[in-house]
Amino acid sequence: MRLDAIIENGRIRTGDADRPMVSRVGVFAGRIVGVDEEIDGATADRVLDLGGAPAVPGFHDAHLHFSLHGQKLLRLDLSHTARPDLDAVYAAISTAVADAAPGAWVLGRGHDQNKLGRHPHLADLDRIAPDNPVYLEHTSGHMGVANSAAFRAMGLDPAALPHHVDGGHVSRDADGHPDGLLQERAQELVTGGFLPVALDTHREGSRLASADLLGYGITTVTEPGIGAPGQIGQSPVELRAYQEGIEAGDVRLRINAMPYIRVMHDLGAIGGRETGWGLDLGARTGLGDDRLRISGTKVLSDGSLIGRTAAMCCDFSDDPGNRGFLVWEEPQLREMIRDAHRNGWQIATHAIGDRALDALMDAVDAAQREFPRHDPRHRIEHCGVSRPDQIDRVVSLGLIPSPQGRFVSETGDGLLAAVGPERADMVYRMRTWLDRGVVLPGSTDAPIVHPDPIASIHDMVNRRTAAGVPLAPAEAVSPEQALRAYTYGSAYAAREEHVKGTIRRGMLADLAVLSDDLLTVDPTRISSVEVGATIVGGELVHDRGAVVS
User: Fold this and answer.
1) Coil, strand or helix: which one is 545?
2) 35 and 90 share one domain
3) How wide is the angle at C-alpha 71 spanned by C-alphas 65 and 74, nearest 5°?
4) Both 29 and 78 in a single domain?
5) Residue 29 main-chain phi, psi, to 5 deg
6) Is residue 125 part of a domain?
7) Hey, which residues does 536 pair with through a beta bridge?
8) Is the separation of the CB atoms in 30 and 509 below 8 Å?
9) d(CA 166, CA 172)
10) Using only C-alpha atoms, what is the Rg of the chain?
11) Rounded CA gap, 86 and 119, in Å?
12) In a domain, 10, yes or no
């Protein structure tokens, strides 16, 4: 038997309970055809010697904004790691303005007012950039700060901005003047000045994002929301950029793309009887191949905790009178979810606040009662705050919460300030869902936080903020549970558990080769484990010298 590749001399954790550890994997046409003695006597065109290193199924990030991650790599980095205070933020912007052509947009991303002390202010940006439009997207992606030139570029008078837009707020300072902060859909007041991203720019961002993520052992990403620039997504032709990137060999990981709900539309009567609703040509969840496929559809229902825009049932602890808000009124949300559910879509709804979770569950419950479906596997993206009385209903509706472990450390101190000690135990639950039989996926929401899945697994296990404060420690999971979430769990959430997430015959040959065993290393040192190589479809696509071939 002649194979395309044999991966050998590894300590490979398979995720398969019947055969948890193997040392050899045979690959043909991108899939696993056997392990260990099942491939005795076989030869191969390529032999990948792991040198005794541990390996696991390739990491699958169940919620990662691939296009935005690529654009972040092309834009000014304003993260706390890169710019630790406002002076550093302003200095970086000043340098970028000096390098920019007159009137050109200057775009930054990643600041966090919880760490800086406050948001950048319009007046400060006006002093730095009186003539260049500036827009600084918050680390959450749910708000941003613009200068006066940005508003003028869109034909708006900065002094006469509305207080509110549908699904968004325009912030004001203590004197009642706009301070440049635009929350949720208010960002659309200026984002049309630089969105959609040009196809060539999108292609370059995709190339950079693919190379970056493969370096962390990520072999699949599920991207929650494409095609609606200004709302979510960077371009209406994102799928084309991905398709061209894959064809050119620039994008070497696998992508499950979720069109944003507003990309959907009425397709008219089908067969003179039913109303079709979705993408043109009737495409829906599952179309595509093992490199690029349409997954679910993404719906936004509220904002973020660290930005104090999540829809809550009670006031934010540090902002009395503010309970956030829903991006869509509940009747609109119900209608969108009903239409998508009726037409066969898997629905992934961003719901961070507990009020948003109530609204989502009401909508899903109503849709399923009217149009019953077997195992629609609808998802709750983030599920940031869930009250004890909501847990049973999440489980009974068959919803899949998709929390982010990395939020615990990178944004945890801001989360604690937002919810207060009395609600801290309700934040980003994980063990609760596992104890109730939910198949939990693993994800980061990158570039909102760092994409490293091993760092995220560390946080799922240890549950400590950047300041070292425990955050809902009862929700910590074991290293084995965290690894399963990032492999099988994410595949299950994407309806791909039959081809991804475990190492056994018939599965795609995707592996991450590691410097240490995630299940035996000291749990407090999980984050020190590094990725030595990444294999997609039996091909070595990233290597730091860990593989002899």
Assistant:
1) coil
2) no
3) 145
4) no
5) 55, 40
6) yes
7) 539
8) yes
9) 17
10) 23
11) 8
12) yes
pLDDT exceeds 90 at position 93: yes
DSSP 373-423: -S----EEEE--B--HHHHHHHHHTT-EEE--THHHHHTHHHHHHHH-GGG
Q: DSSP string covering 304-357, please?
A: -TTTT-S--SS-BTTBTT-----SS-HHHHHHHHHHHHHTT--EEEEE-SHHHH
> How far apart are the C-alpha atoms of 542 and 58, rounded to whole Å?
12
What does the block give as tokens for 531?
A: 């990725």
Check whether 229 has a pLDDT greater than 90: no
DSSP 472: S
Residues 32 and 79 in one domain: no
Q: What is the pLDDT of residues 251-305, one digit of tens each?
A: 999 999 999 999 988 887 666 656 677 887 667 788 899 999 999 999 999 999 9
3-state SS class at 257: strand
Q: What residue numbers bound the domain in which 511 lies?
A: 2-57+506-543
Query: What are phi and psi for residue 181, nearest 5 degrees?
Result: -80, 125
Locus of tokens 């560390």: 458
Q: What counts of helices (H) and strands (E) characterise the chain?
A: 17, 27
| End residue of a domain, out of 158, 176, 191 | 191
Count the Cβ atoms, other than its own, within 10 Å of residue 137: 24
Q: What is the DSSP letter of 249?
A: T
Both tokens of 547, joined, read 């593989």
| Omega prior to 470 cis, within 30 of 0 | no
Domain identity same for 86 and 121: yes
**pTM summary value:** 0.92
**∠ Cα 466 516 455 (to 5°):** 25
The rounded distance, in Å, linking the Cα atoms of 271 and 467 is: 60
CB 445 within 8 A of CB 453: no
pLDDT exceeds 80 at position 182: yes
% the chain with pLDDT above 70: 98
pLDDT single digits (tens) 475-512? 999 999 999 999 999 999 999 999 999 999 999 999 99
Task: Give the SS3 label for residue 194.
Answer: coil
Q: Which amino acid is at 524?
A: T
